[in-house]
Fold this sequence. Notes:
Layout: H1 11-22, E1 33-40, E2 48-54, E3 65-69, H2 89-98, E4 105-110, H3 117-121, H4 124-128, H5 132-140, H6 157-175, E5 185-190, H7 192-203, E6 210-214, H8 229-240, E7 248-254, H9 263-275, E8 283-288, H10 295-301, H11 303-310, H12 316-323
Helix pairs in contact: 8-9, 11-12
Amino acid sequence: MILLLVCMLSTTACNEICxxxxxxxxxxxxxxxxxxxxxxxxxxxSARNVDIWxxxxxxxxxxxxxxxxxxxxxxxxxxxxxxxxxxxxxxxxGRLIDEEVIxxxxxxxxxxxxxxRHSDYFPQKPFESLPRALQDSxxxxxKRDGEALLFASPVHSDNYLRFLxxxxxPYVDATYSxxxxxxxxxxxxSSMGGLISLYAICEYPEIFGxxxxxxxxxxxxxxxxxxxxxxxxAQYLKNHLPSAANHKIYFDYGTETLDAIYARPQKEVDExxxxxGFSDPNWMTRMFPGESHNENAWRKRLYVPxxxxxxxxxxxxxxxxxxx
Length: 324
């Protein structure tokens, strides 16, 4: 049995600790407006808040692309987050829309479930392909901080995706003026949120036309030595990537803190992407030297995946290259 001990916290994972303290606070945004659905109920997963950002000038007379973003409590307002950092989604998306770089969009910020985050976000089919002894070790022995278990419950990310696809997306499409087809429906996340976003487009290629996976947590835990998890993700992708003809996938990583362990598994994933026909303009992987694993880093480069997914000219890579 391989026991992977968690010896450090990722900044994204830490937001589980303080969620209870900020649930009642509506984010203050620089542009657009936030509408919150508190404790959005589901028959598949635990209830959670959903913050929906509408751009300036939102009108029922227009239709909008939709981005579904993980860890929704970290997206808009650093005064409400556990680490006083944020993605700055409203500022970045608002500026790109005003500059007519990207299509107008609605952003759906899905709060994580606190200590259930790992169970929600760890891709289930790859997890279940691990030897049973290792599954049990991960579920019942591995701890994130020397005390709390890394997984609060068995992995149920298939149910989390059913929540997104069968409950949340239909509600958003019925409530707001959206472009519901997959070409205008995207999923975005970082770290474990990057993993579940990739899993979403692989499991539901008819629903999601693009995914952006920032600082994708290929290791699954915080150990890189003798860790079989990146390989099971690679094997899954070999057989489950969506068609390169009509899907876009973005990856990135920094070189500091937790991001420093992602280069090797990302290289293998890049080879799989190429073997499955992904290239410009359907796929992008970027390395950001000196950047760490936190919301401040993701905020600085968020314009890259947003432009890649939503560029008005439909040549996202060229738009990004001209702005770097």
